[in-house]
Amino acid sequence: MQSVLDVIWHGLKDSFLMAWQVWWALVLGFAISAIVQAWVPRERIEAALSGSGPRPIAWATALGAASSSCSYAAIAIAKSLFQKGASAAAALAFQFASTNLVWELGFVLWVLIGWQFTLAEYVGGIVMIVLMTVLLRLFVSPRLEEEARKHAQAADTGHQHHASGERLPWRERLTSARAWSDVAHNFRGDWQMLWKEVTIGFVLAGFIAQFGNGFFESLFIRNAPEPLPTIENVVVGPVIAVLSFVCSIGNVPLAAVLWSGGISFAGVLAFLFADLIVLPIIAIYRKYYGIAFALRITALMFVTMVVSALLVDGIFSGLDLIPTGPRPTRADIFSSIQVDYKLFLNALGVVVFGALFWLTARRGATDPVCGMKVDRAKAATMELGGRTFHFCSQHCRHAFEADPERYVHGNAAKGAAHEHPHAGG
Predict the structure, then answer these.
(1) Considering Cα of 166, then 168, then 171, then 172, what sign does the dihedral take?
(2) Which of 5, 106, 167, 400 lies at 20 to 30 Å from 252 by C-alpha?
(3) For the chain, how big is the Rg over CA atoms in Å?
């Protein structure tokens, strides 16, 4: 019994220490992402996503890179874009960009396992988008794509939240409480969507680290002649990601543990790339697009992830950018709390986090339909029984209007973050 309690204690302690390592980077990444979501106008970008060719793919990539890193939000927004006429290639490019080219992911990777992984993640994101665009027609015919679009248009699942950001001069944005309120609400919305993923990722990493390197040696080929270990690792990496159920930025702590345990550089990349094919997300693809399209794009993404990991590994090997020194030990990954620069950065992270959440509390109200925090001054409203209710969108307002008794007591909004992800406006 005591040994079980020791494992639980050390697992939770290591989870906390890893979170301590990257707290400031998480806050900084989410803050930058929230600023981009709130202040960069997107109407023209969204209008440019239909059609074929490199232009809509480039716009979809730019829009995805400026979005939240939540995988669930990415697939919901991509579905909405696909419904409105975006090609399958553009919708998938958006998904790849929003889960591989975002600030917070790069910051946390850099802190935990080095800048080489951050650079490889960004390069790999671009490579995946190019490969997916080239290979799409081998997996999805034009007829199947149109059938999937009709299925998506008929599916009554979720909606996008659009923060109603104002177009102000940059100087006024920097000094306006209304403009910073948009930032704060995007920041809070991203945390509401991702905190479970992030927490599960750190807890899993903390407990898997307790197995020791012997556990990983049974998973990864390490002593066979190349390229067998690399090929095996890029296949095993996505399989681990799929079975772990963790996606988005929650994958990064586990990636650090896998790197420490002996998986190859390419294996780490393939693991990170695979956050869009975990089992709950595949189930959502089936719900959105039908089973045939869901299975084919899952197969397409798996092939794209594996091949991209191998290509980036080859490029980085040729440029001598793959880390060759000693792997980080458990002590390196989980570190400890000391009076150093990290303590001050984490304290600053707490201040920024608290200030932005305080701004949403001061200016915000909770949408009774989906649970999203919205700015009272900009939200859609409705009067009922002497009370004013605030909504993130007309979609939620109409849902409330149709059945107010269902939402007045706040029960329907629980657990709505993944069903009703938001996108910066």
Answers:
(1) negative
(2) 5
(3) 22
- Integer Cα distance of 55 and 66 in angstroms: 17
Judge whether 169 and 156 are in contact, CB under 8 Å: no
State both tokens at 325: 């020194």
- Ranges of beta strands (E only) in 80-198 are 161-162
- Concatenated DSSP letters for 267-287? HHHHHHHGGGGSHHHHHHHHH
Which residues on neighbouring strands pair with residue 161, listed in sequence order? 422
> Would you call 422 helix, strand, or coil by DSSP?
strand
Report pLDDT digits (tens) over 184-226: 988 888 888 778 878 888 888 788 877 766 666 666 766 667 7
CA distances for 15 relative to 75, 185, 201, 344, 369, angstroms: 28, 28, 9, 20, 34
Domain positions in the chain: 2-358, 366-423
Higher pLDDT, 235 or 245: 235
- Distance, in Å, from the CA atom of 178 to the CA atom of 327, rounded to the nearest integer, reads 47
Cβ count near 381 (within 10 Å): 12
pLDDT digits (tens, 9 = 90+) for 28-83: 878 887 887 777 665 666 667 766 678 899 989 988 887 766 777 788 778 878 88
Cα 98 off chain centre by = 7
Reported as a pLDDT band with limits 50, 70 and 90, residue 160 is: very low
- pLDDT, residue 243, reads 75
- Classify residue 96 as exposed, middle or buried by CB count within 10 Å of its CB (0-12, 13-18, 19+): buried
SS3 state at 383: strand
Higher pLDDT, 231 or 312: 312
Residue pair 262/213 in contact by the 8 Å Cβ criterion: yes
Instruction: Indicate whether this model's pTM tops 0.90.
Output: no
Give CA–CA dist 412/272, Å, rounded.
Answer: 34
Q: What are phi and psi of 391, to 5 degrees?
A: -130, 150
**Would you state the pLDDT for residue 416?**
45
Closest to 185 measured CA to CA, from 163, 207, 200, 203: 163
